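Risk register update: the risk of archive-format incompatibility is retired. Evidence:
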Amino acid sequence: MEGFVYVVNPPEIPRVCFGSGMERITLPMSGPGLTSFMRKIQGEVRDFPGPYEYTHGKELGKKYPSAYGYSSFASKLPRLPPTEISRFPPIGAYNVETKKKIKQAARPFNIGTKLDQTKIVEMPGPADYAVDKKPASLNICSAFGSKRIIWPAVAVICTPDNAAKCSKCNKTPIGDYFHQFQLNLDMCRRCMNKQLRWLKRCSTDLFYRARMYTELSLYKPVRYCGFFHDHQGTTAAIQHLPTPTLKYKIKTENYLYMFKKRLGD
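Archived output:
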């Protein structure tokens, strides 16, 4: 046949790009550039690894199987306890020589110095306040913002003459005293304190104590008006205490009376 070329071995197809058929390592096989993730996915890099080189073979033995000399395939049956190994160095291994000479103190253990006295804290601690009681507040009378009057914590009884008589000792109270506005009864501070001390005794009946505490709570602190003006037996009065001093006295007493009510005195 004319024009037929008999080919025994077909010609090799040339490469399109130079070096496209060469085997190359794209990732480092070892060294600092090999990360833990790359080491995990790179697979086996050795040509002919032995059976004991695989991961499951490493579980059979350990680098240090036993600190007491037992092999990795020793029986797990109960055996005698090993001899106790001391972890502390022997006596001769310590360095008993001091590196620096110790300087002696002029007054060892502070001999001759004065003892520091504990400072007394005048302010009460957080646990001293009664958190279960409602905080005391000032009695304020206001008329829609046009007038604001702070009532004194101790009521003032203004009469031409001091007609107060204690219902217990029948004497005229000196200074502040207590008044029961419902029954119009007076009680001096000495008799009030005597009643409170008597109620705190262990021999007092519980029911009687509760009833007396309820009755005594109705007595409110009051005072006669003679501390800042003089009536001289008439309804008119001559003020002998300056008004700024009187206001400052009322504000101070109201502030201190709030703490007195809060502490339950």
